[in-house]
Amino acid sequence: MGLAALTTALCGIVAGGPTVAAAAPGGAVPPIVFVHGDSDSAAFWMPVLWRFESNGVPAERLFAVDIDHPAARLDDQVAQENRSSSEDAARAVAATVDRALAETGADKIAIVGHSRGCQSARNYVKNFGGAARTASMVLAGCVHHGVYVNPEERTGSEYNGAGAFLTALNTPPAIPEGIPTTILRSDRFDLYAQPNGRFLGLPEQETGVSYDAPELDGAPTVVLDGADHRETASSPEAFIAMYTALTGKPPARLDITPEERPQIGGEISGFANGAPTNRPLAGATLDIFAVDARTGERLGDAVFSQTVGEDGRYGPFRAAPDAAYEFVIAAKGYPLTRIYRAPFPRSTTLAHLRLYPAPDLSAPGEIVGMMRPRGYFGIDDNATLDALPIAGRPENEPVPSVWRAAVAIPGDTPQTVTGGFDGEVIAARTSPDDPNDVVWIELTD
């Protein structure tokens, strides 16, 4: 569906009755709390927040949850290192809501959730005192009914539609009375709403769920044609839907209004027990270099340097809105990591830097990886790395499921490696003199 058509359709939904999330009295938007999904962080929402700001919502009224251990436990009742329970996630939502209300003086907030963040938000509202504090919800790419339904096995999983957690959460009323809720879902390209278990490692088994699994009885649904799992919350089409649901009118603009000298900050985190963590890497050092956007070559000395403290946070770093940057992070237990990012048009405290284990490639040469943290690469997408279509996408698979790719660049002299997706192009630079470093191109969209 095109943007104009989607906007028209959403205007019709908003005009249709009280079931759609409405704006606060007087037209003011309540403070909005954004809840990320499994293995993600608050950084997922950075471009979405920029779009809200560009449509007149003050940054001071936008809040994003960071769950310390963002991956769910295999069994919700059994503790695991660097895994959170459903209660842990709900209490993280509660803490951010408390902060939002305290800082704004508001009585209620709106919640926008994605993936696991949908059930974390619903759990907070239903079981942790959130109903009295929540004005409305927009829930995108959800797993309300699980990614599979199996009453015989893995019943402790937060993702089993027949498990203890989701069975209790979905006990009527699934949506508390008086909290308008809007659902955003893909038509058929969400890898966690598939009839076949191929994305769960069970290609010959039926999951018991289908494309409409993110829906909830009593909540209007906006179907986003062609959206992948992450794009149900991160895409421009998703923004139109969530903004319309929260304010009662479509946004005036989709482009992000640049600031003259944006201030950039974030948290440095890494991996633990085979999963990403949102816990700080205290003592990590960061150097930021302005680079030539065409070649990735540094344009002089570092423009910002810092050793982060116990909170793992860096910044604020005053950036130029049209400058590309290389972030160089050194932390105990990780290889030197160099991350290339596109220009930052607006200020943010969510330019997080997560250190990953080095990609494992058997080919000789320096490894350069590219990641798309807010979406996946589909087989029909124009996604390239080192001037070639990125590898790893199953040729006969229409559902996007790959979000990272890597190449090994041979040679003894520094080279430029360019990665791109859907018009966003970022250049990185190899450093053969330091073969143990890790190079990432990190896309914004």
Protein model, in words:
The protein has 445 residues and is an alpha/beta fold. It has seven helices and 24 strands. A seven-stranded mixed sheet has the order 13-12-15-16-24-18-21, with no helix packed on it. A six-stranded parallel sheet has the order 2-1-3-4-5-8, sandwiched between helices. A four-stranded antiparallel sheet has the order 20-19-22-23, with no helix packed on it. α3 packs across α4 (116-127). It starts with a helix and ends with a strand.
Q: In DSSP terms, counting alpha (H) and pi (I) runs of 4 or more, how many helices? A: 7
Sheet with the most strands, sense and barrel status? 7 strands, mixed
CA gyration radius, whole angstroms: 21 Å
Shape: globular
Q: How is the largest sheet built, in terms of strand order?
A: 13-12-15-16-24-18-21
Report the sheet-strand fraction: 25-35%
How much helix is in the residues?
A: 10-25%
* Secondary structure tally: strands: 24
> What would the average pLDDT be, to the nearest integer?
92
Label the structural class. Answer: alpha/beta
Uncertain spans, ≥5 residues at pLDDT below 50?
1-5, 11-27
Distance between the termini: 19 Å
